[in-house]
Amino acid sequence: MNARVFLATTGHGLARAARANGGGWQVEHLLSEYDVRCLAADPRNPNVIYAGTQGQGVLRSIDAGRAWLPAGLAGQVVKALAVSPCEPGVVYAGLKSPARMCVSRDAGAHWSELLGFRRIRSRWFWLSPAEAPFTAYVQGIALSPADPNVIVAGIEAGAVVRSGDGGQTWSDHRPGAVRDCHSLAFHAADGAWAYEGGGGGAAVSRDGGRTWTQPRAGLDRRYVWACAADPARPEVWYVSASPMPSWRRPGPPPAHVEGHAEAFIFRTVGGAPWEKLGGGLPQPLNYMAYALLTDLAAPGQLYAGLSNGQVWHSANHGNTWQPLPFDLPRIRSTLIFV
């Protein structure tokens, strides 16, 4: 296991778990004065991490999350962040009220809005039920590892849209993608493959986010949240999924009901039907796996971060699992590691 630091959004700042040289873990609580909603690490320098907040803009750390300073977009609600794997210092931010995309080309010192995003025709129909006042927002941003001009953005209950020119112009909703986007990711090395988890299923693209398909065989839960892919084998990918809300289940989706998520982690290999992963994991998961993480330096490794703060690890593509020896207070929606 290569991970030495985990950072999670908790709803009241951040939790940071760091592994000491002796193997023990220390958990700290940070940024309690901020409502942190998203995190992104710089693929070129993992000590550099960005945090998006609910109305307090972007924060930046250069020491793997110990200390933080403001990094622009003051007063803005920042729901999604992504750091370019191709261009040093380039960071994209997805905002709310209204749904917007911004970019910084100097590590957060200055930001500019990508005005073409406001000209997407279907945006007038985007409406998020997740939080008052129910206006749409950018929930996920995925950047191609091969082409710095290719960006895919997902709207909570809206669309999955794509730019091929660095965000100057944007397509409308991509065919086959899930409109209610919860998570987006490009493969770590292969720019042809991209993945989505959403309310209604999971989707995959094999042409850089232009077109998508939704493999459904074996996926008996359709409220999909996290997605991840093996760094050496893009055809091996994973999602976490819980039952969809329905008239028989009044209230919020089970995924967001602590202790009653009824969730599983699923894996598909080469287009084969989805299979539920057990091997030590609780069956089903009472707490939603809001994060699935793979390690570019260690193919086959997989981490799952549950809403109750547990982090589980598999070293063999999800066949067997063990909990890591620490508990975070909570994982609200985002977990990263460096």
Structure description:
With 338 residues, the protein is mainly β. The chain has no helices and 26 strands. Strands 3-2-1-26 form a four-stranded antiparallel sheet, with no helix packed on it. A four-stranded antiparallel sheet has the order 4-5-6-7, with no helix packed on it. It has a four-stranded antiparallel sheet with strand order 8-9-10-11, with no helix packed on it.
Compact overview of the structure:
The chain is mainly beta and 338 residues long. It contains no helices and 26 strands.
Order of helices and strands: EEEEEEEEEEEEEEEEEEEEEEEEEE
Distance between the termini: 11 Å
Q: Helical amount among residues, as a percent range?
A: under 10%
Mean pLDDT: 95
Poorly predicted segments: none
Largest sheet: 4 strands, antiparallel
- What is the number of E strands? 26
Return Rg in Å.
18 Å
Share of β-strand residues: 35-45%
General form: globular
Derived structural class: mainly beta
User: What is the helix tally?
Assistant: 0
Strand order of the largest sheet: 3-2-1-26
